[in-house]
Fold each of these.
Amino acid sequence: MRFRHIEIFQAIRQTGSISAAAQLLHVSQPAVTKVLQHAEQQLGFPLFLRVRGKLQATPEALALEREVDKVSESLQGVRRLAQSLRREPSHSLRIGATPALALSLLPPAIHEWAGLYPDIACELSSGHSRELVQKLLMREVDVALTLQQPDHPGLNAQTLASGVLVALAPKGHWLVEEIGQPLPLMDLADSPLIGLSSADPLAARLDSYLEAVDPPPKVRITVQTYSLARMMVESGAGLAVIDPFTALGASPATTSIRPLTPPLPITLYAVTRATEPLPHTLNDLLRMFSRRAQEQLDRLLPILPLTDDEPRRGK
């Protein structure tokens, strides 16, 4: 089947008639009929039968449909990439971030950056790390902000900030009574814990980290984002082990934060395409983002565990 055959086939499947397919594709009805007949002649079997005034796919057409959809999706990807290649990079900046970072760090950094570059358009999007990597490779975003270092030779990962995962608990829970002290990991034993979906790139690390806890935490609720985990804690549904940026966005009236010991470190990355130098506008944004991330981590400094040779700031 040729691309034109696939286009006509899908239009008829979507609309159920030759005339409606022609309207959808902005071509004449005889043109659709001619392409359909040519496709069926090449294949050696009919693709549609007329049943009670409508065209219905034959069993052979239904068998082809899944593979046809794959070809169509690949063609759409080529079109998206071509559209991205036509874009003038100096006049806009496209930023992707994981949900946790998009909600906690991105808005104030973008507001500051937009004041510096008021004439440059900015497009923001949110998605999981795997989605952001795909968008980078398809040239649909210029930078991805994520807590997961990508494993792809065509991408570079720049470290913007480093921190540790923290425990977020409802106010009044016994685990947060000793504010100012790190929480021993073993204290999570048998506690109600909001779990992370296996789709989260940090979920496997967290599961391995919690293996030492005996008896293990009770995970009865699983969520896909740190932000949803935070909201579940705020509702009193249980504890959560999440990134510090999301935790700091929780209401202090209903929750408390404690770092865990031993710590489970995390890193904030800016991921870009390896073959392209960064424009100065993007470099400025990353500096602002890094500074704001460090400022948020500094808010946790009074309760973060420090080594003996690492003095607290201000002392």
Amino acid sequence: MPLCCVLPAGHPYAFRDQIHEDELLSENIIVCNSYSVPSKAVEVQNRISQHILPESAYICENLQVLLTLVRAGYGCSVLQQMRFINSDIVCVPLKNSAPLSYGIFYKNGSCNPLLKNLIAIIKNIELS
């Protein structure tokens, strides 16, 4: 799953195929250090915010506030690629960023048939 710049749909960068991280240094950035935001995304958000003026950085406490600020046009942010229900926010992949990796953890002795079915489905998706 790629890291992306999350932008309002009307932003000039919204129609691009990729954005380089350095191009975000001239933008307002929205930073969110929440459990729902991958640590690699937070790392990039923080790296960008260290190189811009303090008044160009907005800090929020959760993903919903971050998306609301982006939607309202306060700035952009860096998140994992997401699918949005409406078209007022777009995700543009960051150039030269390593993709995020996700995994699954379960108790080894679990005999829940639904869990085993879920793991089988995930393994099939992973291989395809």
